[in-house]
């Protein structure tokens, strides 16, 4: 029988060894709070792997999970919690992250955790009680509006992906406070720590992440288009994209052409550089994914994949045609998502009579010729939409619902993309 204490200790040791846990307070919290108390029906060996564990699905889509411990540690380090602080968490999940934060802020502090679904709230309360953590207030409500009854907060953290910074989060943040959230930037998510600076929010830390999307009134404008008769096959597009699901599925099951891009890339370069480059420059940018045990039999080209779990890729949809990025067509699929795949030859797969593959290949070549600019060194400022701002030539402005994101790379000449939209 598995030893929970030994597995727990080994996981935390690995997070420390890899540098994901850096501060004594975060390490002490991870060592004090056992994860298995928040996942009572999951085998211990799975609980103490450094992996995300889905805990709720709706219509075949995951809507809640216990986040990967690695990114939890990284975001807690970004949050910079101190004893006695007041914290608002959007996305209670299992309650595990709230328990870690409660350990750090101590008895003099306050943790308020919110979720949209009553069953998730009740589950988090049960798990927290089982862990002996009765200082967390778990509330049912739309986290997009925050919780004004407990404001102002020293720290606000989201454990769900946000398309924009909702006004309530900045309004309920105490002067000198910090907001940490997974923010959609150029087709990918970045965990960003913001602080106030001269009437706007300015990033103090930016790192890669991947979270389920915020639900409720403040959810992002992108939409999921289910494709074909097989479950778990979805195209993610912008709100205004005109997509015929049946025609797109027929394209994916029809003739295709693979074209080598003539370069080797790493997954990190693709996610952190090439994908934002395409998203900023192509209005038809989209994600295609298949989830579940049969994902390997889907028509999704394998750019990012774990055998038996999922396949996903990015591309451009032009209505009557579509193309996607992929690794070598006959290459192996990783068996473990914790493994970093080695560099690979990049391909573009086109579907349809006049696929946009050649144009995408030109975008890829341009990205490569400019030194493969990525999001390393990225700084983000958030200005309310009504505030005028004249960008410098080396900045990108991304309009959102309530704000404009101003992206800059002060430490490098290259930047991701050339289209401001």
Structure notes:
This protein is α+β, with helices and mostly antiparallel strands and 421 residues long. It folds into two domains: 4-209, 3-Layer(aba) Sandwich (Rossmann fold); 223-369. Helices cover 24% and strands 32% of the residues. It has ten helices and 20 strands. The strands form three sheets. The chain has a ten-stranded mixed sheet with strand order 5-4-3-6-7-8-9-18-20-19. Strands 10, 11, 12, 13, 14, 15, 16 and 17 form an eight-stranded antiparallel sheet that branches. A two-stranded antiparallel ribbon has the order 1-2. A hairpin with a 2-residue loop joins strand 1 (53-58) and strand 2. Helix 9 (267-281) crosses helix 10 (357-369). The longest helix has 15 residues, at 267-281. The protein is globular and about 65 Å long.
């Amino acid at each position: 029988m598995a030893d929970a204490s030994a597995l727990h200790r080994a996981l935390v040791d690995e997070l420390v060894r890899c540098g994901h846990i850096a501060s004594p307070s975060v390490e002490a919290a991870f060592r004090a709070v056992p994860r298995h108390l928040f996942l009572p029906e999951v085998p211990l060996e799975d609980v103490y792997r450094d992996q995300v564990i889905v805990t709720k699905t709706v219509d075949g889509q995951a809507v809640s999970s216990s986040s990967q411990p690695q990114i939890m540690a990284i975001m807690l380090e970004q949050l910079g919690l101190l004893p006695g602080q007041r914290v608002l968490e959007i996305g209670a999940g299992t309650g595990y992250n709230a328990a870690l934060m409660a350990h750090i802020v101590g008895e003099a502090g306050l943790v308020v955790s919110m979720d949209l679904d009553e069953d998730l709230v009740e589950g988090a309360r049960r798990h927290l009680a089982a862990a002996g953590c009765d200082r967390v207030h778990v509330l049912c409500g739309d986290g997009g509006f925050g919780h004004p009854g407990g404001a102002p907060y020293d720290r606000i953290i989201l454990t769900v992906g946000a398309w924009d910074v909702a006004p309530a989060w900045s309004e309920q943040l105490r002067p000198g406070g910090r907001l940490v959230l997974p923010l959609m930037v150029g087709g990918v998510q970045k965990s960003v720590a913001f602080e106030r600076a001269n009437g706007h929010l300015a990033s103090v830390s930016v790192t890669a992440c991947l979270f389920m999307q915020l639900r409720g009134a403040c959810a992002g404008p992108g939409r999921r288009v289910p494709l074909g008769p097989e479950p778990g096959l979805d195209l993610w597009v912008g709100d205004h994209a005109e997509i015929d699901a049946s025609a797109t599925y027929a394209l994916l099951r029809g003739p295709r052409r693979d074209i080598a891009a003539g370069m080797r890339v790493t997954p990190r370069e693709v996610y952190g550089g090439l994908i934002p480059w395409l998203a900023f420059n192509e209005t038809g940018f989209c994600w295609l994914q298949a989830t579940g045990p049969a994902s390997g039999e889907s028509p999704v080209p394998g750019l990012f994949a774990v055998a038996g779990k999922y396949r996903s890729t990015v591309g451009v949809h032009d209505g009557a045609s579509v193309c996607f990025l992929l690794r070598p067509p006959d290459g192996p699929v990783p068996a473990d998502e914790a493994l970093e795949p080695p560099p690979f030859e990049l391909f573009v797969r086109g579907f349809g009579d006049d696929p946009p593959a050649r144009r995408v290949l030109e975008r890829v070549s341009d990205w490569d010729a400019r030194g493969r600019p990525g999001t390393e060194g990225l700084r983000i400022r958030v200005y309310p939409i009504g505030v005028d701002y004249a960008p410098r030539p080396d900045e990108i402005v991304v309009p959102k619902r309530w704000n404009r994101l101003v992206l800059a790379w002060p430490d490098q000449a290259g930047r991701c993309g050339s289209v401001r939209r």
